[in-house]
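User: Please fill in residues for this 262-position structure.
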C-alpha cells in the first residue's frame, strides 16, 4: 500500500529478515519485508519515531516520543497484507530516556557483573545507554569523546564493532568498547571512514556480518594484553609479583580471566 515514510529498519537475527517501521497518514506499523511480500505484524504507538534495532533474541527496540519501546520476538508474530488487520497493543515502554536518531544493540559486560544487553544511541556529543537485560532496566548518559558536532542518524553493528555516521558529512565513527565507563560516564570514538551529508538516512547493519570499514581499533586480545600488563607492572593494590626473570605467570592468568582491564 501507499505510505508516507519508511524508517527504523533492522535485520532480525532470529529469522534473518528485514523489518521496518512504515508510516501512514495517521499511524505507524512494523512490517516484515522479503523479496516479494510486505506483511504488517504490529501497530506502533505513533508515527513519530526514527530509530530501531534488534537484539539477538529478536526483540525490536525503537525510539519515539522521547521514549524507548520494545516489541518482543517479532519473528513469532503473524503477518497481515493490510495494516488495518493488525489489532491490539503489544509494544511496551522500556525507558523514558531520550535517545538519538538511530540505535545499536550489543551484548557486553559494561558493569563488571556479567554480560548484559545494552541499547546505545548518540545525541549530539552524548551517548545514551540503556541496559535492557537483565532487568530491572537502567540508563546512563555518557560524554562521548572524539566526535564532531552534529547529529548521528545511522548506526551499524558488525559482530562486536559499533559505528555511527555523522549527518553533516563529517565521518563515520567507531565506538571503542573498552572505553565505555558507566561509572565515570564517558566513552571514546575513533573516526573509521567518511559519511555523506544527509538528514534522510538509516543504518541497516548485519550483526553477524563483517564490517565494511577498515579496523581502526586494535583487536580485543591485543588491547587486553598490552593494557593489563601495563596495569599489573605497577603492582599497585595487588599481590602479584614477578619472578627474578621479570615474568609473572599469575598476571597472565588474571589477564585471561579478566573481562575488562582498564
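Assistant: Residues filled in for all 262 positions:
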Amino acid at each position: 500500500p501507499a505510505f508516507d515514510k519508511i524508517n527504523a529498519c533492522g535485520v532480525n537475527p532470529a529469522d534473518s529478515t528485514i523489518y521496518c517501521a512504515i508510516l501512514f497518514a495517521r499511524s505507524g506499523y512494523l512490517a516484515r519485508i522479503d523479496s516479494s511480500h510486505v506483511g504488517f505484524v504490529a501497530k506502533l504507538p505513533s508515527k513519530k519515531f526514527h530509530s530501531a534495532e534488534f537484539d539477538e533474541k529478536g526483540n525490536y527496540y525503537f525510539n519515539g516520543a522521547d521514549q524507548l519501546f520494545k516489541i518482543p520476538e517479532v519473528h513469532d508474530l503473524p503477518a497481515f497484507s493490510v495494516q488495518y488487520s493488525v489489532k491490539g497493543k503489544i509494544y511496551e515502554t522500556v525507558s523514558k530516556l531520550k535517545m538519538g536518531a538511530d540505535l545499536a544493540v550489543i551484548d557486553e559486560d559494561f558493569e563488571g557483573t556479567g554480560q548484559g544487553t545494552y541499547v546505545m544511541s548518540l545525541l549530539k556529543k552524548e551517548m545514551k545507554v540503556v541496559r535492557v537485560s537483565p532487568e530491572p532496566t537502567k540508563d546512563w548518559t555518557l560524554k562521548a569523546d572524539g566526535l564532531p558536532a552534529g547529529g548521528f542518524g545511522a548506526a551499524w553493528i558488525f559482530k562486536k564493532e559499533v559505528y555511527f555516521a555523522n549527518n553533516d558529512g563529517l565521518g563515520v565513527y567507531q565506538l571503542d568498547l573498552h572505553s565505555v565507563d558507566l561509572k565515570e560516564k564517558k566513552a571514546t570514538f575513533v573516526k573509521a571512514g567518511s559519511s555523506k551529508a544527509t538528514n534522510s538516512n538509516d543504518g541497516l547493519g548485519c550483526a553477524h556480518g563483517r564490517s565494511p570499514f577498515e579496523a581502526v581499533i586494535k583487536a580485543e586480545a591485543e588491547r587486553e594484553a598490552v593494557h593489563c600488563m601495563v596495569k599489573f607492572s605497577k603492582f599497585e593494590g595487588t599481590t602479584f609479583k614477578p619472578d627474578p626473570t621479570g615474568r609473572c605467570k599469575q598476571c597472565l592468568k588474571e589477564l585471561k580471566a579478566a573481562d575488562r582491564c582498564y
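For context: Residues 221-237, 253-262 have pLDDT under 50 and may be disordered.
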